[in-house]
Amino acid sequence: MQTQRLRIAIQKKGRLSKECQTLLKRCGVKFNMVGERLVVHAENMPIDLLLVRDDDIPGLIMDGVVDLGVIGENELEEVSLERQARGEPSDYKKLRRLDFGGCRLSIAIDKDAEYNGPQDLNGKRIATTYPQLVKRYMDDLGVKFSTCMLNGSVEVAPRAGLADAICDLVSTGATLEANGLKEAEVILRSKAVLIQSTETLDDEKQALIERLLTRMQGVIQAKE
Ligand code: PRP
Ligand code: ZN
Ligand code: MG
Question: Which CATH number describes the domain made up of 6-101+191-223?
Answer without folding.
Answer: 3.40.190.10
